Amino acid sequence: MRLFGKLQLILIVVLLSCLKLFFDFTIIPHDVHLRAKFTKQTHPKPQFSKLTDNLFIFSSFVDTRNGNMGFPFFRIIAIMRFRHYKYYCLFKSRQTHVQIYVMAENHGRLYGACILNCRIPERIIITNSKIALTDGNNKLDIVPTYYITAGSGNSSATYAYNYTICLPFLYGHFYSAKYVIEMVEMHKLLGVQQITLYTTKRKLNNVVQKVLNYYEAESILDVIDFEQPIKDVWNHAQLVVINDCLYRNMGRAKFVSFQDWDEIIMPMQNTDLISFFRNIFNASIASYQISTVYINYDPNYPSFANSVEAKSKRLDTKCVLQPEMVFEQGIHHTSRVIQDHYLALKLPSNKAVLHRYAKYTYTQTFPINTIPLRYTKTLSRNCDMVSKKIYV
């Protein structure tokens, strides 16, 4: 009887171990399970983790899209010192070599943004387990931040948001609380449903923190606490921010635009941006570059209701895209699509332009699109209401 009891105990332990392995590394036959997990749970907040002084990882994702570089992959967005290193991913006892993809706009800094790519072993999809990253001497356990399913990008898919925007790192005292309110309220009038931004909130002034907290509670802002681990990287690790926001919105938003704090996409017809994007995108178009028009700042109007062009020779662009169709997003262009036949196009300026609002000393100005003036009264009223609520 004692022997029989021991055998029962051994069988139970083996069964529990098998069940854990099944739920950690298993096959998901339909991507709907991952999509439900992705959109219904609170979205995770990534942060930097250190493997060595040469490598800091920020976020990671399971990517089952059918890409032109193969699939499925476990991918890691990271900052890396540019030397020749070898890294490996460990899926339980199975090891795969890391393919290092260096992003396009690192501008010769000591550290640069990259994507580490580990081919997921055959018949394994990670659902609830840590994957180890190692250089042979050091090891870091990583839980995937995002899950990108093979069905993402399907026109019939249900998204949590139709349109979101991604903003760069917010720091210092460049933008007042009043300015942030005007920016958010103008985007809301144009149809934006969520804005993702990255900042070290505790370093901002108290009033700006109050504004961010207010809009977080309203679910219009998705604020990621961003503590940059090293200094010698381009523009506050802007490529890490951009590409994390890209992957953060896959399966979550139908359209995503990447722009600065003083910019807004303005359609040339009187329409909201969601309707406009639905008209210009199709199943083959991954992204559009939108030309910038520099707008002279007139303090008599809310910042984003100005519409007088300032003379400028700069020809900057920013992008709006369908995120599931993109592999790497740059600052001013889409660097790489996930399938070679997807298109990255330039949008004609008679369709829409990107207004950039700044103080210029140019004397030669002339009126252009007057649509922003149509929002002035509503924008001013909404901004006043919010300011009173948070005592700005």
Automatic annotation (TrEMBL):
It comes from the Eukaryota. It is found in: Membrane. It is a single-pass membrane protein. One of its GO terms (molecular function) is beta-N-acetylglucosaminylglycopeptide beta-1,4-galactosyltransferase activity. One of its GO terms (biological process) is N-glycan processing. GO terms for cellular component: cytoplasm; membrane. InterPro entries: Glyco_transf_92. Pfam families: Glyco_transf_92. Keywords: Glycosyltransferase, Membrane, Transferase, Transmembrane, Transmembrane helix. Its EC number is 2.4.1.-. It is an enzyme of class 2 (transferase). Its main location: membrane. Belongs to the glycosyltransferase 92 family. This is Glycosyltransferase family 92 protein. It comes from Loa loa.
